[in-house]
Amino acid sequence: MKTVNHYHHKKILVLGLAKSGVGAASLLHKLGAFVTVNDYKPLDENPEAQSLLEQGITVICGSHPVALLDEGFEYVVKNPGIPYSNPIVQGAIDRGLPVITEVELAYQISQAPFVAITGTNGKTTTTTLINEIFQAAQKSSLIAGNIGKVSSIVAENAKKDDTIIIELSSFQLMGIEAFRPKIAILTNLYEAHIDYHGTMKDYISAKANITKNQTKEDYFIVNADQEAVMEVAAHSKATIIPFSTTKTLDKGGYVKDGIIYFNEEAIISIADIVLPGAHNLENILSSIIAAKLSGIGNEAIYQVLTTFQGVAHRLQFVGEKHKRRFYNDSKATNILATTKALAAFDQSIVLLAGGLDRGNSFDELIPALTNVKAVVTFGETAEKIDAAAAHAGIKSIVHANNVEDAVPLAFDLSKEGDIILLSPACASWDQYKTFEVRGDIFIEAVHKLK
What sequence ranges are listed for the domain Mur ligase C-terminal (predicted)? Predict the structure, then answer.
């Protein structure tokens, strides 16, 4: 960890806990700051807050009193999930206080360089792939951010010869000041999280922060097939390295005659790649580029791409029962992700979908349902997805109470050779704490089938 005196004897408010808040508060305490933590959950239901109390950190729980700002704080470190409309956050901004996220702290103390990945879809797969390639090449890498450990804890223990591979959301990227990755990746941009950001323009602006501090000495890997991504790249000062699944490029990563190339060097045949789904080519291309820019040879890349079957809850193969193949795509929390999952299969599909209702319709899902023979819906959005399925001409539409009940119903609607796919197109929070919990319940229900 770098020696950082910037926060010594500064009064800092850590707003919101969860893992990132605990990590930020503990780190700032070690750096000599006077830390106050404020979390909405009551203290007697809040083991994270209790652990911070034991470290001698001031903790205020049960509400977010705006009067806290009268105590003379010099920084606010915000949990990414807390919106900027929160009265304390808005009050801090009105007073001119810097509002940062824990990722910024991680960067400031880290001795290790960062490879940072953002985008609407593909972040987790790309982050995991890059880490797997680093490991295969015996290069020391650490995963942080939305997957893996809290970034400030990772950065605290990272050494100069490590590389921190970090998945970043738009929420996290809104709260950076100096964060500057050696390699940044923008996988794609589609409409998402408008309930948080307000407009697509503001969402893209948040994503663009991944490159805002980069210079010509850094690399920005971008999706050349998307105009919105290339507009972000046009304002970057980094060295731009594009990738494309549809056209041959003068430099960067592309596909030609069934072969993946980087800067005109053949890397691997698509036929040798295990990871299913045409959409994963974007993730594979950006991962190959990041590896090559990091000095990794083709052998390690080939080794990983011929064995890597995907990450948990993202088109994860669960198993085969009675000649039906089951896939867990619980991480598909929006329509686009489900559309891409459906396009990954040529076989007939029984789709399990539903979850939190964010007020949107599912008309955009209709064109993707061509291979779907039956739908089992659950959660708040069940009736909306039913309507989309009926519009698509699907005859077998069944309601389930939850994911566990949906699995045997889906099996009854299937026949040999079918795919049974959990790809909800919705967040999980109406019935499940996380999409991981939802996916795990699906896996357990599959294994219970007789």
Answer: 313-426
Confidence band (pLDDT; 50, 70, 90) for 339?
very high
| Distance separating alpha carbons of residues 283 and 359, to the nearest angstrom | 30
Cα–Cα distance measured from residue 187 to residue 226, given in angstroms and rounded to the nearest whole number: 9
If one compares 445 and 148, the residue with the highest pLDDT of the two is 445
Annotated binding site: 119-125
Last residue of a domain, one of 85, 100, 115: 100
Cβ density class 207-235: b for 16+ within 10 Å, e for less: bbbbbbbbeeebbbbbbbebebbbebbee
Nearest partner of 14 among 102, 86, 97, judged by Cα: 102
- Mention every residue, 6+ apart, whose C-beta is less than 8 A from residue 58: 35, 36, 37
What is the residue-averaged pLDDT of the chain? 94
* Overall pTM > 0.90: no
Q: How many CA within 13 A on the CB side of residue 441?
A: 18
Residue whose structure tokens are 């850094």: 218
Instruction: Compute CA 138 distance to the chain's CA centroid, rounded to the nearest angstrom.
Output: 25
In this structure, what DSSP letter does residue 149 have? Answer: B
- For residue 370, which of 400, 386, 349 has the smallest C-alpha distance? 349
Measure the CA–CA gap between 379 and 297, rounded to whole angstroms. Answer: 47
Q: Are residues 259 and 151 in the same domain?
A: yes
Contact between 351 and 330 under an 8 Å Cβ cutoff? The reply is: no
Binding residues for ATP: 119-125
Distance CA 253, CA 380 (A): 41
**Residue 19 pLDDT exceeds 90:** no
pLDDT average, residue stretch 335-350? 93
Residue 310, domain member (yes or no): no
pLDDT of residue 3: 84
- 309 pLDDT band, cuts 50/70/90, is confident
Provide the domain count of the chain: 3
Question: What is the residue range of 292's domain?
Answer: 103-305
